[in-house]
Amino acid sequence: MELSRAMSISSTPTPREGLEPNYKEHSHTWAAEGGLHRVLCMQGGDDDGSYAKNSEAPASAITLCKPLLLTAIQSLKLFKEEGIKDSIRIADLGCATGYNTLATIDMVVESLRRRYIQECGFEPEFEAFFSDLPSNDFNSLFRSLPAAATLSSDGNAKPRRYYAAGVPGSFYDRLFPKRKLHVAVSLSALHWLSKIPDAVLDKRSPAWNKGRAWIDGAKREVVEAYAKQSEEDLDNFLRCRKEEIVQGGMLFMVMGGRPGSEQQLENQLGDPDSRAKHPFATSMDEAWQDLLNQGLINEETRDGFNIPAYMRSMEEVERAIKRCGGFELQLMEYQRIMEHSEEKHKEWIRDPVSYGRAKANLVRATLRPIVEAHLGPYLSQDLFNCFEKRVSSDTTLLHKTCFYGVIVACAIRN
């Protein structure tokens, strides 16, 4: 089944149609203009439902991998032969918006800058490329950039020490000329796929994912379809970076993942507590069922929505790097991150309503653009409200701990 058909909304009238007469054409429009990559993005802006205000887990992942990234930079060969006539070029692939991406680039630039000053006696110029899908909120990202790194009369540099540029496009395609990049990082983005597998949305297929928004605990045929798409996507990602990264350059990746082998594809989250609390799993399915029970959508509409995310195993990542060739794998680790701090946990036990609101904002931050493409803004708000009520009313969730698994990998272009 074509993605444009699968992601369209139901033709069954709903109470919202009088308020939003054009919403039935909404999903058809974005599909015709290029598919999922036209709407898949983190929620922009800076309100309570924005990604900038709800990226604690990615921030924790970055904090966790910061020592590994700094160690990799310290061991990276400096590009001395280029002298000061060329810039050092860094790309953040899947940058989204907010503090995380700026902090990462600042860390990479500052670490390299100090090495060049100490070991080579000069400070090269740096270029930073912020890349994400065209639907990303680049305006908010660039508004948050600090001032350019010019010298004041006393010789002190202002905060930003690099020239910045935006590069819209899918990182599953080529984004830069050959041998352009010295350092490429992708943090908390590669678990998002380029598309939803056609078989998952086809009623005639054994992989039809009926009644679910995601794949944790789904039928093996469903997860295998996602795994196949994941393999194709990661192959494309690595092939493109192989062309774009200079010899001796570094590719550093952090992605949602799992430690298990290929025999555990359906166990995407690792443990029952994580499955119960994860925003893509149980409560999300229940919220979709609530819309169905209220007569706001039909089964076709519910079954046509799937979250395009897949948690790879370490084996899958390592095999893809070997299959691509051109890279020497320097590091690979699996780590688990708690969904929030101990302080937040104690606060939310005292106030379950606040917890439900926070989880709903997290879902809005990550899924609102694709939910709106599927349902339109009115019904999507109903969905998030149902999700919030579900989470707020289930106090057992507050006594469970959700972990996000991440894979950290570093490879050098040889």
From TrEMBL:
GO molecular function: metal ion binding; methyltransferase activity
Keyword Transferase included in the entry's annotation: yes
Keyword Membrane: no
GO BP annotation list: methylation
A matching Pfam family: Methyltransf_7
Keyword set, alphabetical order: Magnesium, Metal-binding, Methyltransferase, Transferase
SUPFAM superfamilies: S-adenosyl-L-methionine-dependent methyltransferases
Region feature Disordered, mapped onto this chain: 1-22
Protein's name in the database: Gibberellic acid methyltransferase
Source organism (scientific name): Fagus sylvatica (Beechnut)
Gene expressing this chain: GAMT
